[in-house]
Amino acid sequence: MTELFPRDNAGVLHVVALSGGHDSTALAFLLREKHPDTPYVYVCTPTGDELPPMFEHWLKLGERLGRRLVPIMAGTLYSVIDDEKMLPNFRIRFCTRRLKIEPYRKFLCEQTKIGPIISYVGLRADEEGRAGGAYGDIDGVEMRFPLREWGMGEDAVQAALRRFNVVCPDRTDCGNCYHQRLGEWYEYWRDYPERAQRMADKELALGQTLRTPGRDTWPTALRDLFAEFAKGNIPTVSLNRMKRERMEAGGCRVCSL
Q1: Range of 220's domain?
Q2: Helix (H, G, I), strand (E, B) or coil at 25
Q3: Cα(54)–Cα(60) distance, rounded to whole angstroms?
Q4: Between the N and C ends of the chain, which has fewer C-beta atoms within 10 Å?
């Protein structure tokens, strides 16, 4: 197997899982600052459904960090939906498993054939509910969570991003996500109408919805929801809440590595 990625003098491959969200972005810059001689390899796992600002963000990160991000893909959101013949939801998160977890595991397993790996993941010290153990059982892979090791919570992460003058996009996840809020659906419909309509059509074809029934008083099906938006009905409460939250923090809530 040919080595495509640089290793340190001890033959260790240092892989930084860089989703592009606040935590992983801060982690990447802090690691480079603390250990400038370590040949970090930055990887991301695109779903193909990210919004244009996210792809621009990945490119800018590569420029700032001095090394292009390595995309690891195993299809797209629409391709796995077609394979599964269903839409993902809170109970069945096959999109995360198939497009994030499994491809990254495969990448790590392939690289262990050459030598040991340290995988760095941006889990904060104040995220006790997230174990981050999806890759810890791979022989030859040491999982590290530096933000936790350094005792860094949300406030410290935001301070680091300000110090490095890095601004992450408001949306770092898919344009179509069962987890997104009403205001995010409105912004998506407003800014990317063709993409929004494609998912509305997919819902109709499958007879399913991304939005959970009864989650709020608005229509569940995207086709009906977008029709309300087109009438001039705007989810002001949700949009205002999002505006306040974005002034403090943000990032992908579901499938960041």
Answers
A1: 182-246
A2: helix
A3: 10
A4: N
pLDDT of residue 128: 73
User: CA-to-CA distance for 156 and 162, rounded, in angstroms?
Assistant: 10
Tell me what pLDDT residue 4 has: 84
- Give the residue among 105, 71, 96 at the shortest CA–CA distance from 178: 96
The 10 Å Cβ neighbour count of residue 16 is 26
**Is 39 a domain residue?**
yes
Same domain? 74 vs 46: yes
Amino acid 215: pLDDT: 87
Contact 61, 42 (CB under 8 A): yes
pLDDT the model gives residue 58: 96
CATH code of residue 119:
3.40.50.620
pLDDT at 139: 94
Shared-domain flag, residues 59 and 127? yes
Residues 236, 207 within the same domain: yes
Same domain as 194, residue 157: no
Distance CA 168, CA 189 (A): 21
- Cβ atoms of 43 and 19 within 8 Å: the answer is no
Structure tokens at 74: 């195993």
Count how many domains the chain has: 2
Structure tokens at 91: 């109970």
Q: For the chain (length 257 residues), average pLDDT per consecutive 10? A: 82 96 97 97 97 96 95 97 96 94 95 96 85 73 96 96 95 94 97 98 97 94 98 96 79 46
Q: Which of 141, 159, 138, 142 is nearest to 150 (CA)?
A: 159
Residue 158 and residue 96 share a domain: yes
Structure tokens at 187: 């912004």
253 within a domain of the structure (yes/no)? no
Q: Are residues 38 and 126 in the same domain?
A: yes
What's residue 20's pLDDT? 93
- Is residue 98 within 8 A of residue 75, CB to CB? The reply is yes
